[in-house]
Design brief:
Distance between the termini: 61 Å
CATH class of the largest domain: Alpha Beta
Strand content: 25-35%
CATH architecture of the largest domain: 3-Layer(bba) Sandwich
CATH superfamily of the largest domain: D-tyrosyl-tRNA(Tyr) deacylase
Number of helices: 4
CATH topology of the largest domain: D-tyrosyl-trna(Tyr) Deacylase, Chain: A
């Protein structure tokens, strides 16, 4: 799942001659759902949109507050073209989730956002319509967000887990060997100091 998140001073959606949604200060989110997206992707995107710290705090410190902290509005617009794959110069949209599945999936994402935040502050465009989206970007601040992708094949997942375990064992072994080497060096240094091989070490120390 892909999202383009823009910090705005205002944004609106018009279909034909009718303005169907508008917000003041907050976020405008263009959301593209892929054919492979699951509830896990939706959970990730919703959490990030609502908790992304791109607003200033009460002291003017930037990148400190989320849209929920500031109690600003969010305007979501379904945007299947974010799943574009170029074939030469021609866009191909086969990676996007088909509309008959994407619409209920998208509606569920909106419901998640309304449940997690304040329902009256979550606005929407019109799914599948030809829309005019008017965005007054503030900053400009634009964040590209993409849900993490991972293998769905159990064998591939098990393989990656084993690789991770091997990395952790190697890292642990390296840390252990490094610790022994440092201890040996310290021991050697103490021996030299006591024998006078390197001179009077104590006299070279800071007072």
């Amino acid at each position: 799942m892909k999202a383009i998140i823009q910090k705005v001073t205002k944004a609106s959606v018009t279909v034909g001659e009718e303005q169907i949604s508008s917000i003041g200060k907050g976020l405008c989110v263009l959301l593209g759902i892929s054919a492979e997206d699951t509830q896990k992707d939706a959970d990730y995107i919703v959490r990030k949109i609502l908790n992304l710290r791109i607003f200033e705090d009460e002291n003017g410190r930037a990148w400190s507050r989320s849209v929920m902290d500031k109690e600003f509005e969010v305007l979501c617009v379904s945007q299947f073209t974010l799943q574009c794959i170029l074939k030469g110069n021609k866009p191909d949209f086969h990676a996007a989730m088909p509309a008959e599945f994407a619409q209920p999936f998208y509606n569920k994402i909106l419901e998640q956002m309304r449940t997690a935040y304040k329902p009256e502050l979550i606005k929407d465009g019109q799914f599948g319509a030809y829309m005019q989206v008017h965005i007054q970007n503030d900053g400009p601040v634009t964040i590209h967000l993409e849900s993490p992708t991972g293998p769905t094949d159990p064998k591939q997942i098990a393989k990656l887990e084993k690789q991770q375990q091997r990395k952790e064992k190697t890292r642990s072994k390296a840390n252990s060997e490094s610790g022994r080497e440092k201890a040996a060096l310290r021991s050697k240094g103490d021996t030299n100091a006591s024998s006078g091989a390197e001179g009077d070490v104590s006299s070279e120390r800071e007072p």
